[in-house]
Amino acid sequence: MDDRDKTDGQGGSIRPEISDDELSGRLRGLGSELDKVRAERRADAKAASASPDRASTSAGMTLAFRLGSEFVAGVLVGAGLGWGFDYFLGTSPWGMIVFLLLGFGASIVNMLRAAGETGRKTPPKGGR
């Protein structure tokens, strides 16, 4: 046989035959590379699971925004009602002061209720 590559008759070359041993070696090499990649992905997944859970972080942020909005809404409603009383009844500044303080108190109660501190039906253990 010739040492030249086989051709397909149209000027293109045909690959020489590859032995089964060479193909088995390539397959083993690819298998070992695949095992390395899988091990790296498992290590990355374990590292990601060790970090704080995103669901709990987002739940905490949701509660924080809710509590903040409860506080701001209570104070603004109190101030608005106080301004309205002062405007229509001519009691300036007493309506604003009283209703602003009432709005502040109501917002604190709403925040405690939203956080679950005041809705208990049973008293804490150890207290009377």
TrEMBL record:
Region (Disordered), start-end ranges: 1-26
The entry's keywords: Membrane, Transmembrane, Transmembrane helix
Residues passing through the membrane, by range: 63-85, 91-112
InterPro entries assigned to the protein according to its UniProt record, in alphabetical order: ATPase_put
Protein name in UniProt: ATP synthase protein subunit I
Record organism: Ancylobacter novellus (strain ATCC 8093 / DSM 506 / JCM 20403 / CCM 1077 / IAM 12100 / NBRC 12443 / NCIMB 10456)
